[in-house]
Amino acid sequence: MMTKNSREFDSYSERKAFDETKAGVKGLVDAQITEIPRIFHLPPGALTEKKPSVLSPDFKIPIIDFAGVQVDAVSREAIVEKVRYAAEKWGFFQVINHGVPLSVLEKIKDGVSRFHEEDVELKKSYFSRDFTKTFIYHNNFDLYSSSSSAVNWRDTFACYMAPDPPNPEELPLACRDALIEYAKHVMSLGGLIFELLSEALSLNSETFKRMHCLKGLLMLGNYYPPCPQPDLTLGLSKHSDNTFFTILLQDQSGGLQVLHQDCWVDVSPLPGALVINIGDFLQMMTNDKFKSAEHRVLANRKGPRISISSFFSTSMLPNSTVYGPIKELLSEENPPKYRDFTIKEYSTGYIEKGLDGTSLMSHFRI
């Protein structure tokens, strides 16, 4: 954490003052600012550090149709092969005909929007940086991380929906029913995706579920207000996810990009689709066979942008399960590249490090 004696003192003071408003980025927008505070400013050149997004057909996120996944073995194997390719080459793919009703997708987007546009005094009652609480609202989980170069232009609520589903009264009325309903569908879809990922590794379809990978679900409701100076900041800094994998629902605003072959590639919104991305845990467990791709979100003059991130991870909750490279995937030619870890150990380091543009996986390499 930055101290008063450090050269970052001004930044720390401004971050603290911003944090204490408990109004988030939306509070700045509501105040009708025309220039963003300097704590949001990226270092010069940060937005152009990689080649711009390209339009080649080879640089389009894989789209996988799940319609035939339960029809017959041949259809399922074709889908498994597409999942294998996407997990190995991209770490990202979009799914259609995934079984989550469009009405449920629209309801959760509306619920996230309603919460973030509630009266600020109501939102303040949920404000916290205790990442073990059932439901919290905050801005930038790494706001006080010494390695974080700039504050991101987004507000977020976080809610644990598993392993212990919250009592309905613990959730804000604005998004209560939508969260509960969406979480049920996400858990079901998550189970199917774990099966397909297991089969993509030529393992028993229940492998990841038997390893309790489906145990935890942390859902984030993200709100990216319109930014008056989008060329100076980011909605979300470059990072990979501290999850097994993530299911993301995004609206039609755009802005999500994945780093692929040293290029930023747009993850273009597809109506009714869900974005799946491999997380750090699966990259380590598959000994680098699957890829946990870095991604970011651009700021935009238009808005708000709404997204819902569903993290398959117990995150900061107690969990004694120890993970490491899966033994069936190892050999003399492919020895383990990572040491064993627990989810809480990894998540603690991830939060302390913040989104500084580097991966925590390097700390677990053998």
Automatic annotation (TrEMBL):
InterPro entries: DIOX_N, IPNS-like_FE2OG_OXY, IPNS-like_sf, Oxoglu/Fe-dep_dioxygenase_dom
Family of the protein in this entry: Belongs to the iron/ascorbate-dependent oxidoreductase family.
PROSITE patterns according to UniProt: FE2OG_OXY
Protein name: 1-aminocyclopropane-1-carboxylate oxidase-like protein 12
Keywords tagged on the record: Iron, Metal-binding, Oxidoreductase
Regions that span the bilayer: none
Any one GO molecular-function label of the UniProt entry: dioxygenase activity
Organism from which the protein derives: Cardamine amara subsp. amara
Organism ancestry: Eukaryota, Viridiplantae, Streptophyta, Embryophyta, Tracheophyta
Pfam families the UniProt entry points to: 2OG-FeII_Oxy, DIOX_N
Source taxon at top rank: Eukaryota
Keyword Metal-binding: yes
Domain Fe2OG dioxygenase: 215-315
Cofactor section: Fe cation
